[in-house]
């Protein structure tokens, strides 16, 4: 049973005020809201709706009484059969397009964007062709950003689309022959004002290319506004059906209908499908088998419009708020800020003068770990050039380098050098430290004996085998020979030890003059 609420009487009747507050609380607590909007949300922008006394249908009948019998006939696909009605259609659309260009988004459009920014909007479905939702930041289904690019037929990106345009977009034109779409420019509007559609540039270029190859010309289509008329299939009907099926599977918890009379058959089916899922929110059984108790703000279908819904919606719509949509959304935002002020807390920053302007409490962005404390990672371990193992200091066994190797060997970062003293094994680090200590203790002066230029020089005629240190003479060629020490037959221990100490030393023989 639909409950009617007068928005103007909210300040007087306590029951009405309490019910409207519960609806506002439902908007604030819901996480998957589906919105269905019509032309009524754009009336405050200066754009007329369709079926009201001062709507588009009445305006068409007043301006062209002899051409069409009803205003609805001007938005029917059968108008293209008559050249006179087609000319009137193009002229009327050009005037409507200019009035839409001069309009600005209403508070209702900004309310939809707020729901999306608060991550509460599951999807928005609109019958409007004005594209005002896209001006406030909602990507529409007719936008080029929401379509795939390539040689194949363009498809919608489900995750990118935030506003599904059920009746197309007046800001784009489509070819009647090749179905190519492009933005509506001033040149197109000038042609529409004269009642004649412009030719499609895509068809024209292909036809001219064939004529240049001495082939027959192709048929050239005309451009028309990329809106969907009555009794006309939607070019993106399959993709929109996929989006609707995906949203129903995600189980929305609230349905808001604003600014539409619910007369179109396709929209009626869409609303009933979503309402069935929304009413099931919060119902079922708990893991213990007890039935769940649905809260008073869960699973509600709210209809906001000046005119009440028909009798067929009594079991579908829970609340009918009679009034302007802009006034209702402003009340919802006001109640939302009072009931849940934490949802509107924004982190502020210091200005240049260093003064603070009312900091508010925000959640700490630092991640907290549960259980064991997470191991601290040293940022200086990675991305450092490998050091020379003979120069670096030995690694202390008590201070082990901090390593944060992943669990999988295939995901480990490849080191720049396999001989890094940080990333090597403990055994390699001990070897490197031992070699470094030995090199520091080594006396380099003893190595000069390996490169002497004069050895075994005889100082006296008595003949003594003494080593004579001197400079290398490069003027004369010298022959390097290995001297084998002679061992006396007397087998003197001292001579044997002296010979053994000189064994294997490379010396140079110099003849003394």
UniProtKB/TrEMBL annotation:
GO cellular component: mitochondrion; nucleus
Subcellular location: Mitochondrion
Gene3D superfamilies xrefs: SIR2/SIRT2 'Small Domain, TPP-binding domain
Compositional bias of kind Low complexity: 391-409
Residues annotated as catalytic: 167
Keywords: Metal-binding, Mitochondrion, NAD, Transferase, Zinc
Ligand binding (Zn(2+)): 175, 178, 200, 203
Pfam family, one: SIR2
Domain Deacetylase sirtuin-type: 13-345
Family of this protein: Belongs to the sirtuin family. Class I subfamily.
This protein's name: SIR2 protein
Organism ancestry: Eukaryota, Fungi, Dikarya, Basidiomycota, Agaricomycotina
């Amino acid at each position: 049973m639909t409950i009617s609420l007068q928005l103007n009487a909210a300040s007087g009747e306590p029951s009405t005020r309490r019910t409207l507050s519960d609806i506002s609380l439902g908007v604030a607590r819901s996480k998957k809201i589906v919105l269905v909007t019509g032309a009524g949300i754009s009336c405050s922008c200066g754009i007329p709706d369709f079926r009201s006394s001062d709507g588009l249908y009445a305006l068409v009948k007043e301006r062209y009484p002899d051409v069409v019998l009803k205003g609805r006939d001007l938005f029917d696909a059968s108008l293209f059969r008559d050249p006179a009605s087609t000319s009137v259609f193009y002229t009327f659309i050009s005037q409507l397009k200019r009035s839409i260009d001069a309009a600005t988004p209403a508070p209702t459009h900004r309310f939809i964007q707020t729901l999306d920014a608060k991550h509460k909007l599951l999807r928005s479905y609109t019958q409007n062709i004005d594209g005002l939702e896209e001006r406030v930041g909602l990507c529409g289904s007719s936008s080029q950003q929401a379509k795939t690019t390539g040689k194949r037929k363009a498809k919608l990106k489900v995750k990118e689309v935030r506003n599904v345009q059920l009746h197309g977009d007046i800001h784009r034109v489509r070819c009647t022959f090749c179905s190519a779409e492009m933005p509506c420019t001033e040149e197109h509007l000038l042609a529409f004002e004269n009642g004649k559609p412009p030719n499609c540039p895509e068809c024209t270029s292909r036809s001219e290319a064939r004529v240049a190859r001495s082939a027959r010309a192709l048929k050239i289509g005309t451009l028309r506004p990329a809106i969907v008329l009555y009794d006309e299939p939607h070019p993106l009907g399959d993709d929109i059906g996929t989006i609707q099926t995906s949203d129903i599977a995600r189980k929305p918890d609230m349905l808001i209908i604003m600014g539409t009379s619910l007369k179109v058959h396709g929209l009626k089916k869409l609303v009933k499908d979503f309402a069935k899922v929304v009413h099931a929110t919060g119902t079922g059984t708990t893991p213990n088998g007890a039935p769940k108790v649905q809260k008073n703000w869960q699973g509600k279908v709210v209809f906001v419009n000046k005119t009440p819904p028909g009798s067929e919606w009594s079991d579908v719509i829970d609340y009918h708020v009679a009034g302007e949509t802009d006034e209702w959304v402003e009340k919802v935002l006001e109640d939302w800020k009072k009931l849940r002020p934490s949802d509107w807390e924004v982190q502020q920053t210091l200005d240049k003068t260093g003064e603070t302007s009312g900091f508010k409490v925000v959640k700490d962005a630092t991640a907290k770990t549960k259980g064991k404390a997470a191991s601290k990672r040293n940022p200086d371990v990675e991305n450092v050039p490998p050091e020379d193992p003979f120069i670096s200091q030995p690694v202390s066994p008590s201070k082990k380098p901090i390593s944060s190797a992943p669990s999988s060997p295939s995901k480990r970062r490849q080191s720049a050098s396999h001989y890094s003293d940080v990333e090597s094994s403990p055994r390699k680090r001990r070897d490197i430290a031992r070699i470094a200590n030995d090199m520091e203790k080594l006396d380099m002066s003893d190595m000069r004996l390996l490169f002497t230029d004069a050895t075994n020089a005889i100082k006296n005629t008595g003949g003594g085998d003494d080593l004579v240190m001197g400079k290398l003479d490069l003027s004369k060629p010298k022959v390097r020979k290995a001297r084998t020490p002679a061992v006396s037959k007397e087998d003197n221990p001292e001579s044997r030890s002296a010979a053994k100490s000189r064994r294997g030393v490379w010396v140079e023989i110099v003849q003394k003059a």
